[in-house]
Amino acid sequence: MLPYLMAYYGNPHSRTHAYGWESEAAVEKARRQVADLIGADSREIIFTSGATESNNMAIKGVARFYKSRKKHIITTQTEHKCVLDSCRSLETEGFRVTYLPVKKNGLIDLKELEAAFQPDTSLVSVMTVNNEIGVKQPIHDIGEICRAHKVFFHTDAAQAIGKIPMDVNNMKIDLMSISGHKIYGPKGVGAIYVRRRPRVRLEPLQSGGGQERGLRSGTVPTPLAVGLGAACEVAQQEMEYDHKRISQLAERLVTKIMSEVPDVVMNGDREHRYPGCINLSFAYVEGESLLMALKDVALSSGRFGIGRFTTEEEVDYTVQKCIQHVKRLREMSPLWEMVQDGIDLKSIKWTQH
After folding, report:
1. Chain centre to alpha carbon of residue 304
2. What is the pTM for the complete model shown?
3. How far apart are CA 83 and CA 79, in angstroms?
4. In this predicted model, what pLDDT tens digit does every residue of 98-144 receive, in sequence order?
5. CA nearest 328: which of 289, 270, 274?
6. Measured between alpha carbons, how far is 242 from 159 in angstroms, rounded to an integer?
């Protein structure tokens, strides 16, 4: 990215001078790198500010373009907030949205999806890898179902790109959201894949100079696009190695914690998942209390993220601290004490004071 922040400062949309041509060539190379990672044509890649914008573009863009004939959208209850909020925003405009529940393992029921289609359904939006519990939805099957119903299929793939193999043609994906910083690229940049055949049409969210095929006006930030492209290329080269290594570290973390601490539940399907996102529930311990106790470890409430640069030492340190603090917090918990005394908590009639 550095040369495009310092020396090559041309506007990639300026066609009348060499400075612009240099930047344009760099942006187009980055576009090819992103496209190659997902099996797309580079003309189908539009640069955005990140997956939040891409999700907004896909959902609102498709809904509004086809609104004269189609007023129904299908998504799931476990989508990222920006998808759910985009759908709620459309409901205020008169669109109908079906929010599919997920099964106990976090996956959607394909029969429920089939049953949700209506004659005026324009779009189905289901994320590939869940950002909270790491489950991987049956994207290939969903794509087949949507194609059979002649309904566009959008997936928020921010947590999946560069981590698991994705092919937009094989999976029958029509729109896909991509985030830069989820694959070790720069923050503030992302992309949206928009299929050309059969062509998906969007109503743009942003009006202006008509850049990015008129779908996303505004000057493309060359250094950020270059960074995203490079990150996609590295991800493609390292994906197999990363996946194997992260799987081993995840197995190490889960096995060690579960062998030392009773009453721990791993949330989400054990088979259909991305191993780098581990979500654990520790019974009789408040999530926030454990989070505060582990303040020298970067994690979310109940969620451990393992990435390309995580070391065995870091996993072992986290495991040891986690075991230590869960035991300590349980010693302070009256519920834990009752369970140790053989009291069935479900049999207690709780009253509010």
Report:
1. 15
2. 0.96
3. 6
4. 999 999 999 999 999 999 999 999 999 999 999 999 999 999 999 99
5. 289
6. 14
